[in-house]
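Notes from the 1:1 (GR / supervisor)

We went over the backlog. Supervisor wanted to see one worked example end to end before approving the batch request, so GR pasted a single chain during the call. The sequence is below; no edits were made to it. Supervisor asked that the structure be written out right there so they could see what the output format looks like.
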Amino acid sequence: MPETENQFEKDIIATKNADIYYGSFRAVKNVTLDIPQHEITAIIGSSGCGKSTYLRALNRMNDLIPGTHVNGEFLFRGVNIYDPEIEPVAIRSKIGMVFQKPNPFPKSIFDNIAWGLKMTGNTENLNESVEHALVQAVLWDEVKDHLHESAMSLSGGQQQRLCIARTISVKPDVILMDEPCSALDPIATLKVEELMRELSKEYTIIIVTHNMQQAARVSDFTAFFSMDTDRAGIMVEYDVTSKIFTNPKQQETEDYITGRFG
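Structure output shown during the call:
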């Protein structure tokens, strides 16, 4: 646990002894991690160490993969999101997700944002809500005269910011981002990183990234994942980002940060 004042009062997501299975294979093992509210938490580690699997478990996206199941506790505001009475769709409206590759719908820019609002029944003041989401995603000025044109006509960076606008249009509490900049050029990446910092004033953001420089630039806290001898992903260390990158407690973390392995 990072050593910060009143940490437990700030936590919005907590996992305790979390295991995630694909069939009989345990992909993530015994992860206990508390995510603070209105901060950016980065999850770093080499390929195959369970970062994305863990991230998707936080809003039950893994439910879409046959044979997936979990053990341990996955808590959102103290509620177990895997309780049988909890609807996954309700969880995903509170914990949204932005994927690695921009995935706008083959619809107009306006309809991409309006879709989520309609699905959740938030159709009152639809035009204003669409505009607000695009303003928050720092995209409004670029698209306001083209709202009824295809979202597929946008650049890759614009498409990713559109996907972020679509996610935040329904006002989630948490935004999960799985390598959101890996398909973008450096200029578009910088815009998304600046957007993340601005959005963290209102939302909690959890980002999986292979880019350690990105994690160091944008995140407040960092969790380092690695692979155990049984190929299960484990969390090695979690702390304030500056400590992870300058004075990690674990040798394995230091070896990864300095490029000795991974």
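Supervisor's comment: The chain is about 35% helix and 25% strand.
Batch request approved.
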